Amino acid sequence: MRGWRRIGIAGLTIVIGCMPGAAQNATQTEVRSTELVVNNHDGYAAVIRRNGRAYVEVEGLARITGATLGFQGNRIVLTLPSPRVAPPPPQPVAAPQPPEEKGFTREFLRAAVEQVTAVREWRSAIENAVRTNNPVEQSWITGYRRNAENRMTMASATASTEADRQMLPLLQSAMGMVQQLSDRFLALRSTVTYVSPDSLNDDPLDQKILSCAQGVTSMAVPGGSFQDVQACH
Fold first, then answer.
1. Interatomic CA distance for residues 164 and 167, integer angstroms
2. How confident is the model at residue 17 (pLDDT cuts 50, 70, 90)?
3. How confident is the model at residue 106 (pLDDT cuts 50, 70, 90)?
4. Total structural domains in the chain?
5. What is the pTM of this model?
């Protein structure tokens, strides 16, 4: 049997060439043949096992790993190829943004209608007090104003489309006009001025409040477009 020389490469014991006395020792020990398979590489290299050690054929190892062999004196240099660089993972594709909703949104209209309702209730309370000769007092006016302001805040928070935002000034104007009406009768009470039960008949400011509220509610349709209401200005 031909002798073998051992060299260490990357943790493997590789056998090549002839070493005096090795053949003689090989005849005195058990020798078994097998094959070396390298993961992710095609082919195999011959391997023999002797005295509990494995010896691989260096040419076969170079062939299956794509390496090159070089000789430097009594040294054999096995140069392994550069490791394969895995391609970068594909970048996640951002989900397309849904198109912006157009027209009035349901959430905003719900809040807007509640705000207009609060303004109407405030106006009705003033009208009832005047027509029944009861004083308009700051104590209950404050409650109506606070309710209307809270509804206005909710409407502003839910406005998300251009149509929603265009309606906000109309809601604010309606609340401002009913506040003016309240201030007028509060001032009359503070000066102990007589207020006729017919004071609100054909009152321009009172009529503007009604027309503004009606104009706003008439266009409160989900998906509807904004149309200005002159009575709110």
1. 5
2. very low
3. very high
4. 2
5. 0.58
Condensed to tens digits (0 to 9), the pLDDT of residues 41-88 reads: 666 667 777 777 777 777 777 777 777 777 777 787 778 777 667 778
Would you say residue 100 has pLDDT above 90?
Answer: no
Q: Are residues 113 and 71 part of one domain?
A: no
Show the domain range for 181.
106-232
The 3-class secondary structure across the chain, one letter per residue, is CCCCEEEEECCEEEEECCCCCHHHHHHHCCEEEEEECCCCCCCCEEEEEECCEEEEEHHHHHHHHCCEEEEECCEEEEECCCCCCCCCCCCCCCCCCCCCCCCCCHHHHHHHHHHHHHHHHHHHHHHHHHHCCCCCCHHHHHHHHHHHHHHHHHHHHHCCCHHHHHHHHHHHHHHHHHHHHHHHHHHHHHCCCCCCCCCCCCCHHHHHHHHHHHHHHHCCCCCCCCCCCHHHC
